[in-house]
């Protein structure tokens, strides 16, 4: 549990829930009445009746906005900052960890074999 980002994930969930509540209140208090004013609808912010059935498109539009606002914030504050460094590494702008070359690996093997043959203390154990 101490590994990973459990604490950060917990904070993200709590902040996300609080932000969603704020967006829902904003939608209910401002956007739904605004949709009602623009479309001439009643309390649901726009509706029409077909064959005796009432379709409340204003409520649907306000729920879509309630979804899009947090999604846009999360995308702009989390996704974009995380993808920019990855794109830079893919393009070669930021070098990742450099792997040793074949020559460096061979030189290391040579040095270890010499130390083993000489019986140097601290070197690899001899057989």
Automatic annotation (TrEMBL):
Bilayer-crossing residues are 6-27, 34-51, 57-80
Output the SUPFAM superfamilies linked to this UniProt entry. Gated mechanosensitive channel
Where is it located?
Membrane
Main location group? membrane
Keyword terms: Membrane, Transmembrane, Transmembrane helix
Q: Which Gene3D superfamilies match?
A: Large-conductance mechanosensitive channel, MscL, domain 1
| Membrane topology note | Multi-pass membrane protein
Q: Which superkingdom, per the lineage?
A: Bacteria
Q: Give the CC-aspect GO terms.
A: membrane
Molecular function (GO) terms for this protein are:
mechanosensitive monoatomic ion channel activity
Alphabetized PANTHER family for the sequence: LARGE-CONDUCTANCE MECHANOSENSITIVE CHANNEL, MECHANOSENSITIVE CHANNEL MSCL
Q: What protein name does the entry list?
A: Large conductance mechanosensitive channel
Q: From what organism does this protein derive?
A: Geodermatophilus amargosae
């Amino acid at each position: 549990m101490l590994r990973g980002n459990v604490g950060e994930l917990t904070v993200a969930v709590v902040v996300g829930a609080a932000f969603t509540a704020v967006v829902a209140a904003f939608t209910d208090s401002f956007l739904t009445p605004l949709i009602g004013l623009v479309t001439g609808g009643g309390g649901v912010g726009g509706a029409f009746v077909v064959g005796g059935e009432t379709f409340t498109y204003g409520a649907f539009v306000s729920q879509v906005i309630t979804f899009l606002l947090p999604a846009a914030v999360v995308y702009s504050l989390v996704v974009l900052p995380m993808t920019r460094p990855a794109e830079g590494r893919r393009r070669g702008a930021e070098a990742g960890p450099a792997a040793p070359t074949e020559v460096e690996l061979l030189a290391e093997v040579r040095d270890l074999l010499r130390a083993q043959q000489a019986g140097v203390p601290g070197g690899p154990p001899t057989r």
